[in-house]
Structures are given as structure tokens and as C-alpha cells.
Amino acid sequence: MTTTIIGFPRIGHHRELKFATEHYWKNKINQEELQQTAYEIRKNHWQAQKDAGIDLIPVGDFSFFDGVLDTANILNIIPSRYKDLHLSELDEYFAQARGYQNGSETVKALPMKKWFNTNYHYIVPEFSKETNVKLVGNKLFNEINEALEQGINAKAVVIGPYTLLKLSRFIEDTKPRDYVEALVEAYKQIIDRLSQKGVKWLQIDEPALSFDVDSVEKQLFDDLYDGILAEKRSTKILLQNYFGDIRDIYNDVTSKNFDGIGLDFVEGKYNNELLKQNGFPDDKILFAGVVNGKNIWRNHYENTINFLNQLNTKAPVVLNSSTSLLHVPYTAEDETKLPGDVKQYLAFALQKLDEIKELDNIYHDEADGKIALTKNDNLFQSVKHPVNPVVHHRIASLSQADYTRLPERSEREKIQKKEFNLPVLPTTTIGSFPQTKDVRQNRSKLRKGEITREQYDKFNEDKIVRILRKQEEIGLDVLVHGEYERNDMVEYFGEKLDGFVFTQNGWVQSYGTRGVKPPIIWGDISRTAPITVKASVFAKNHTDKLIKGMLTGPVTIFNWSFPREDVSPKESVTQIALALQDEVLDLEKHDIKIIQIDEPALRENLPLRKSNWYSEYLDWAVPAFRLVHSKVQASTQIHTHMCYSEFGDIIKAIDALDADVISFEASRADFTLIDQLVAANFQTEVGPGVYDIHSPRIPSEKEVEDLIKQLVHKLPIDKIWINPDCGLKTRTEEESFKSLQNIVDATKKVRSEI
Ligand code: GLN
Ligand code: ZN
């Protein structure tokens, strides 16, 4: 055995699982039909891995929604409010993932969170007093049976207990410690059952070891695994980490009774240092993650082989992906519209299987290894990313002044207050209005060539005029054009910037049945024509109120794309920032006086280890944002928006973006962030959301009034804006209009009382 992968994409070659699942939800197919589709997807995926020459094939990584939820359910970590619905096992599972509604009976979904530093989201398990951890679910074992019947050399896969505890929510005064014993028992039983079936390996995923691990957490890890590994068993245990290195716990992990240890040598560069300093035990197998599971470029074989040859161990090495291949699309073979030579440099999931096999051949001096090595070498010799000398010149001539907006914010604040003359507690929205069916149809008609560009634009312009009238009628102070022209806030900008390429079928699961199609950075990035100017100016010409222009920020565009590996993140993000600077200045030139630069992905992509937050991320991310707006006049107001209010720990960095106003999601939170902002002497004006746009619920005027009063109580009144949590694109018009009316009325009421 010399090759494996950590996991495979689940959604299917043509997103069959997505469509089948959504049909099932709409009662268009029954459970057997859905299960049949799932069965076939698994079978095809295992066969594809076998055909590619992968020795040890992950089983149990398949999921109808999310692997963390799968593991929680196998272990009976299911809150009773879902059990009380008395649904079938699958429906109970979906109820946890997406909520349940049947007449008057409604149960909310479990929360969803971003999976480490990826754009995948997991369902957050909930532990409470009633949680009785025990092995109850058969999903893993059923899939193992299936695989064994098909002659697949299966490696069972589960999320490990440490990661499960780290990612879960604990209510009613419970804590991770309370469940150690029960978890140890349950995992032991899993191992027993697998041993009985003759399964050779169990992969236990512990990505949470890539976070900082303190002494208390280390003890937790010890207690879990000393228990789980206490007895002899015939199934071998692989401890699999990814998304970084395990520096805080390396010696602990390597001294335990694991049969194999899986390390990520792509993102976890430091793992190699750990091996150099401490060695790696000869009696274990090293699963070396050398093929990048998170990016789509071909592996450079020569570098990888050199790397493998210098590893400081005599242990047998199994070649592995660095993470699950869940984070890359299915196959590059389908792409027919990529510019000339791009496709040959791409490796999606299927191509990565071949790469692992080829690397294995080279590593073990197999005859066809040499051919593969030469071919790969030629490929890397030939790669030519388009170069734009103007961009390089611009970056070379940047100085500190380009990152500094003058005059300073407090001065600008006075100038802007005078210029805009807005009432206290100005009201606005975050940008998008509902993308109703007709809006999506209009876009698809253009794509299919059923309407002309003029007809398409005319439709959107009518929409803009209509939504402006609506916003005026509601009484909002700062209006937006509604973003009807955008399918997606990153793809839309990528398509209009030089340097990006797009796939037709490059879907990556984001959560459940939802996917994204990230743009690929291929050449130097620049703006070749105005992007949002036309829509913003059109809106400005159709209202007497202030219009807020709307852009996606450089960090978000970068984070939600597949980046180049031959160029530093700093270089790429600076290129994007300069392109957006052109857009901002263009908007300003056209008399758009307020410009919002959205950065929802800024907080999301903080490195997993706190000590890397600045050095590996914020030190280039914050300057990139500043570069976008540093050249505008004092009277132009720059807004930014972040989706989560979880930036308490990087308040200084957020203030250092030097925006004039920031809006963020806050309506569900208890406003603790506001106290933190006050304590940190936060200078940016703030618009904490007062309307939860993720829910169909319409907040009452009274409810919003109370929230506003809390804000006024905590913050200087001239620093507060009133707005929803986020864009309204996924809501219905009815919900949005009523909610916004309540917001505006509540604001007026508070204004009248001060
Ligand atoms: N302006 C965007 C919108 O309103 C912001 C979206 C986001 O923050 N994700 O849709
Ligand atoms: Zn948002």
C-alpha cells in the first residue's frame, strides 16, 4: 500500500447529488430513489479511485449534507427537539441540517460554521445535559459493507473526537470533558465493528490539531486517545491532520499507539521542520500529504520527489492528498472554454488521483515513472502566465503614501457630515435587493442568447428605477441600486477583470447542496473597463437621494478565488486592489459620493494559529484594502461591510482599514461586540445590523426600536448607522420591504425622542 487520499468530492461529476437531494426535498423523488443515486455516486467515485491506482480508498467521506453532522449522528449527538419529530433517520438528519417545518410545527436548523480556513461549512453539533453519546448510527458500516461487496480496499473515515469536541456547541453548563468517557467507548466500538468486518484501516480526522493547542486541550487529546488506543485491534488507526501543522502536539501524537500519522506538507510546511527536529518513528507509517487538496494547479513532480527524499524518517511513506479533495472540482477534462493553454496546468479531483499514482511510480522508480516525470517537467518549463508590465510598474512604484488616506478620519468625518447633512442614525441597506425569479430569468436569457444585451440592460434599469422608488417610499436615507446585475459578488468582478479565467463546471461544495464556482487567477490582474460605474451613475441620475456605490473588496475577491502558487498572496491581492482603486476613483469622478467596499471574507480567512494572524495575513490584507480607497477626497465616504460580527479579536485591524463606516451582522448577537468596540476606542462609524436577513421573519418595529435604543445607549449617537445584517438578495420582496419599513419607522421614532 503506497497511495491514498483523505476524501473525495461528494456532489458527483455533474452535481447529481445536489439535484437528487433537492428533488427529494421537493417531494419529486422518494427516499429510495435518493438512496439509489447516492449509492451510484459512491460506487462511481470508488471505482474512479481504484481505476486511478489508489490503493487505500476512503469510505464514509460521502455525505448527504456534512461529515461533522454524520459523525455526530452516528454517535447519537442529536438534540431531542429533532428526535421528537419522529421522522425517518434521513429526514431527522435533514431537519438538523436545514430546519423543519410542517404546519405549525417548526424546528430551527443547527447553526452552520465555516470549516477551518476553507469556504466549506459544517453543521455545529450541540451537546446538552440530555446528550447521551453512544454508537447508534449505521451509515459508516453500511457504506463499508457496500465498498467491501464491490471489492474496494476500504479505509473507513470518521471525524475524530477531539475535533468534534472543539467544533461543537455546549449548552446547559456542559463542557467537552463531560463526554470523554462516552466518546472513548463509542470510538472503541467503531473500531471493533470495523475489525470484525476485516477493515484494514480507520482514518480519524483531527484537523483541529492545526489550531493552537494549549495544555488543557492537550490533556483532553491525551485522555481521548489513551482510552481509544488502549486495546489491541486488527484495524489499524491513522490519525489524520490537515490545514496546517501540529507543532503544539507533535511529540505527543508521535509517541502514541497510532499505526499511521497523516500530515499536511502543503499548508503545514512546518511539519517538515518538526520531522527534522524530532524525527518520525520507524514503526509507524507516514501518510505524507503532498498533493494539494485545496488548489487546482498541477503538482510539480520534481519538487515533490525532492521533498519526499529529504524527509527525516525511515518509516514507510504513503503518498496522500494534503486535505480531502472536497475542496476542488471534479474534473478539468470537461472544461472546453478555457483560454488556449490553461487546461493542461489544472488538476481537479480526478487529475489529482493520477498525480498521486504517478508520483508514487516516480518515487518507487517504476518504469513509467520516468516518462511521467519528464512530461511534468516539460509542462512546468512551458507555463507562461500572461504578464502585464504596467501592473508590475505600478506595484514597484508604490510607497507608504499610497496606503495612507488623508486627511485623517476624524477630519473627514466632519467634512462628510457637513457635505451629506444626513439625519442622526442614517438608514441604509447593504446593497442587494431580492433576486426574484424574473431577475434570474433575465440573466439566463442573456446567457442563452435569447435576448440582446440592450434588452438585458433595459430590464435591469427598470428594476433599478423601481427599487429606488421603493427605497424612497420607505424613507431610507442612503440608497443603493440593488445589484440586479450580479449573480455572485466575486464571479461578477472576476469576469470583468483581466487576469482571471472561469470554468464551466468547476463546482465546489460550499454547504449542503450549495456550491460555488471560484474564479481562477491566471495572469496579472488589471481593470480594462469600468465595472459598476454605469449602474451606479444610472441610479444617481434617477433619484435626488444619495446613492451608495457597491464593490467587492480585494481580500474577498482573492480569498474566494483559486490563487496562483507561483505568486505571493500579497502580490495578487495588491494587483486586485489597484484594479479596484481605478474603479473607486472612477465612481468618485462620476460624482458617486458614498462607496461601499464589501469584505465579508476578511475575518473568515484568518490563519488557524493566532501567532500567524498578522505575519501571514493581516499584514498584507489590511494594506490592500487601504490601497483601494487611499486616493479619494475627504468628502467621499468609504463604507465597508463584513458578514459576521466575530471580529472582537481583531478590532484594531478592522479600524486600521481606515474606512469611514462599517456595517456588520449583529442582530442575533447580544451586542457584546459593541462593548468591545467602545473599550477599544473604535473610530470607524458603525452600522450593526438590526434585521436578521437569514430568516424569513419580519422584525417588528418595536423590536428594532429596542435594538436601536441599546445601540444609542452604548455608542456615541453620531457614530451609528441603521441597517440590516447583510444584503437582501435571498429574501422575498414582501419580507424585505416590510422589514425595512419597520426599521425606518423605528429609527424615526428613536430620533423623535432624542
Ligand atoms: N453588497 C453585498 C450584498 O448586499 C454584500 C454581500 C455579503 O456581504 N456577502 O449582497
Ligand atoms: Zn454580509
Describe the protein's architecture and organization.
The chain is globular and about 75 Å long. Helix 10 (250-255) links the parallel strand 10 and strand 11. The protein has 754 residues and is an alpha/beta fold. The protein folds into 2 domains: 3-382, Alpha-Beta Barrel (TIM Barrel), CATH 3.20.20; 409-434 and 462-499 and 532-753, TIM Barrel, CATH 3.20.20. It has a 7-stranded parallel beta sheet with strand order 1-7-9-10-11-12-13. The model has no long low-confidence stretch (mean pLDDT 96). Helix 17 packs antiparallel against helix 18. The protein contains 27 helices and 23 strands.
- The outline comes out as globular
> How much is the average pLDDT?
96
Bound compounds: glutamine, zinc ion
| β-strand number | 23
Ranges where pLDDT stays below 50 over 5 or more residues in a row are none
CATH level-two architecture of the largest domain: Alpha-Beta Barrel
| Percent of residues in beta strands | 5-15%
Pathway: Amino-acid biosynthesis; L-methionine biosynthesis via de novo pathway; L-methionine from L-homocysteine (MetE route): step 1/1
Binding site for Zn(2+) 1: 641, 643, 665, 726
Binding site for Zn(2+): 641, 643, 665, 726
Function: Catalyzes the transfer of a methyl group from 5-methyltetrahydrofolate to homocysteine resulting in methionine formation.
